[in-house]
Task: inverse folding
């Protein structure tokens, strides 16, 4: 699965402004970043893989309420999705690491950031 395929899949379900890997310096205040993570090792016998991804949601300066609401909207859209096609990958389930989006703090210009992590099970 490529990052742009994952972003396209998320954006279809939770419209918004998404960027791969990191917040751009010229991007809007209210936006999200998606990163792929290694997750667990591929099962060598079955070929099932267990990648992970993270979504960071950033809001306008000191706009905690709207940023939290956006994070929950994305979280609730993605969490526990079953039988999805993301790019060429056949995803069995997407499950969250945690029960809610996690507030990780503010950046240098007081923009709140929430984080959420998800694990996937992908069939060969």
Result:
């Amino acid at each position: 699965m490529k990052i742009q395929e994952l972003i396209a899949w998320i954006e279809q379900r939770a419209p918004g402004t998404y960027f791969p890997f990191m917040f751009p310096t010229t991007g809007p205040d209210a936006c999200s970043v998606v990163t792929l993570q290694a997750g667990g090792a591929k099962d060598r016998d079955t070929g099932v893989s267990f990648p992970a991804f993270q979504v960071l949601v950033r809001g306008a300066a000191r706009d905690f309420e709207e940023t939290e609401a956006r994070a929950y909207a994305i979280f609730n859209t993605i969490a526990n999705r079953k039988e999805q096609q993301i790019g060429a990958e056949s995803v069995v389930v997407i499950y969250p690491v945690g029960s809610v989006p996690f507030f990780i703090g503010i950046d240098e210009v007081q923009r709140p950031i929430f984080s959420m992590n998800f694990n996937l099970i992908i069939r060969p």
Observations:
- The mean pLDDT is 97.
- The CA atoms of residues 59 and 67 lie 5 Å apart.
- The chain has one domain: 3-123.
- DSSP finds two helices and seven strands in the chain.
